[in-house]
Amino acid sequence: MAGRHAASRAATGSPAQGRRRRTSRIVAALVGVVVLAGGGTVAALAARSNGHHKPAAAPNCTGEVSVPVVAAPSVQAAVGAVADQWNASHPAVQGRCVRAVVTGLDSAAATKSLAADTTPTLWIPDSRLWADKLAATSPALASAVKVDGSIGTSPLVVAAPPGKAAALGAAARTGWAGVLSGSTPVTVTDPTTTAAGALLMIGLSAQNGTAPGAAAKLVGLFIRLQAAMLPDSAAGLTALSANPAAAPAFVASEQDVYLGNRGKTAPVVSAVYPSGPTPMLDFPMVRVVPAGSDPVVAAAMALFEPQLTAEAARSRLAAVGLRTPSGAPLTPTSTTTGTSPQQVTPAPATVTPAQQAAALHLWAAASQPSQLLAAIDVSGSMADNSGNGKSKIQVVTAAAETAMTLVPDDWTMGLWTFSQHAAPATDWSELVPLGPVKTQRSTLTGATVSLPTRVGGNTGLYDTALAAFEDVSAHYDPASVNVVALLTDGADLDPDSVGLPALLSRLKAEYNPSKPVHIVTIGFGADADASALKQISDATHGQSYLVGDPNQILGVLLDSIIANH
To answer: Which of 277, 286, 378, 492 is the most buried (most CB within 10 A)?
Structure first.
């Protein structure tokens, strides 16, 4: 029998083993004396180590139910400590022992993992954006995902080298758009894989408005941000630590700054707080309970959740740089945190699917190359007053110059003018052929500046529209969006032109859905032939704009560049 084998081993043990056993019995006896004489000293010490005022009760349950908890890496340690304390109290559900098991996983990766898992899970991503994304994965998951509140928040800030913080602070007083487009470069983390990047992109898009050109101006900003985009905040902090003079400032969470300075004798990164509504990471408690899940696990999950918002958890979360769920500021005890105990104005917490889709569309428009041929009317009427003291061609020239500065190097562009006298044998003149912006930006700018000197003659609209469409079609780039932007203030006045019916017929016949080339038409002023322009755009599935206010020219011209992304 087992008992006899144990006794036999004890009887035949070595003298040294006997001494160790006697010593152990003596220690055990002493511990017992201390407990009895000290009124429960050992129990009291155990209680203090677990954060309770009384010792944990002995397990009164059988078996074990695991509660999988997946937490964003920045809160994994704090959530794990809360779980350890709770586990030590021997929680039980329906007579079964319960244990919370915490795993750290990046929120983007967790979204993919949970979509393919059927295990009930309590998930704490850094933003409820991920919960929305998971719920949208399938109809089954839509009913399985429930957000049960937040464990803490962290506002977005600009993480900057301390030496650049003052300059950025001045720009930050004008708000997020001001600091991002200011003279001190600021970049973002990838909005497709980080909550900070996604929330900023969505926030800027939501605040952008619907005025003509508003979307295009935002795309111009997105193009600038993408030029130096970071994969995540860790990469930005590494660059700042290694070379603060050369590393860019970037949008991060206040928690990123707090943790980046932890253990340092002086801040290596400072948080700059732009004014106005600020997106917040909200670290929600997301209960993912697929259909058919064990109800005991779901009940255990519900039992654990309140531990994450209890006072003991709040102190642990504050220690890793999280504000309260309501956004109450941090109260750092040291100037080495690089953060400021100041209030921020939270941006709206709810982001609609439409807002997310609109922001993603504009971000994609900024990231996808374009091949654009701009054809600009230089007929005699373009010398007329536009209504603001400048001629129409002067207004168009200024708008085109500005637009040229926003076009990235990896785009392809060309510039034509058109009127009956534009070239000896045609109604159009090729000032700059289609080519890489990187190598011919100065040529494009110089040709644009020369537009006012080229005005004269009647409008040769139809032949130009067909020729421009065929030129872009002949140079079709499958990796780009292929567009003709055609701007005019009048109607076709060339008696020898192809004519509108024949033009529309040829455009429809030559349009290839597998190699689409879109004509975007812009009518400037009351004399523009709105009907003909819309028909031309419709024949190639493009857009048509009418502009009466000279101040709208830039916006509409930019819109024509991104409309088909």
So the answer is: 378
Going 374 to 380 to 385 to 391, the CA torsion angle's sign is positive
Q: Quick check: pTM over 0.70?
A: no
| Residues forming beta bridges with residue 272, ordered by sequence position | 158
Q: Which residue has the tokens 């497709």?
A: 192
Q: What is the pLDDT of residue 421?
A: 67
The residues, any chain, with a CB within 8 Å of residue 351's CB and separated by 6 or more, are 129, 132, 202, 206
Rounded distance between C-alpha atoms, residue 101 and residue 97, angstroms: 13
Q: Which of 212-221, 330-339, 462-471, 510-519 has the lowest mean pLDDT?
A: 212-221
Q: Percent helix, strand and coil across the chain, each rounded to 5?
A: 45, 20, 35
C-beta neighbour count of 226 within 10 angstroms: 16
- From CA 269, how far away is CA 254, in angstroms rounded? 11
Q: Distance of alpha carbon 236 from its chain centroid, rounded?
A: 15
Could you give the maximum distance between any two Cα atoms of the chain, in Å?
121
Looking up tokens 């926003």 gives: 406
Do residues 337 and 324 lie in contact, with contact meaning Cβ atoms separated by under 8 Å? no
8 Å CB contact between 484 and 517? yes
Write out pLDDT tens, residues 409-459: 888 999 999 998 666 789 999 999 999 999 999 999 999 999 999 999 999
| Cα 58 to Cα 51, 88, 89, 303, distances in angstroms | 17, 10, 8, 18
CB 415 within 8 A of CB 403: no
Q: Quick one: fold of 62-153+284-309?
A: D-Maltodextrin-Binding Protein; domain 2 (3.40.190)
Question: How far apart, in whole angstroms, are the C-alpha atoms of residue 39 and residue 8?
Answer: 38
Which CATH number describes the domain made up of 368-562?
Answer: 3.40.50.410
Nearest C-alpha neighbor of 363 from the set 247, 495, 198, 240: 198
Q: Could you please report the per-residue DSSP string of 435-457?
A: EEHHHHHHHHHHHHHTGGGG--S
**SS3 state at 429:** strand
Tokens 């000290």 appear where? 38
CA angle 489, 490, 491 (to 5 degrees): 150
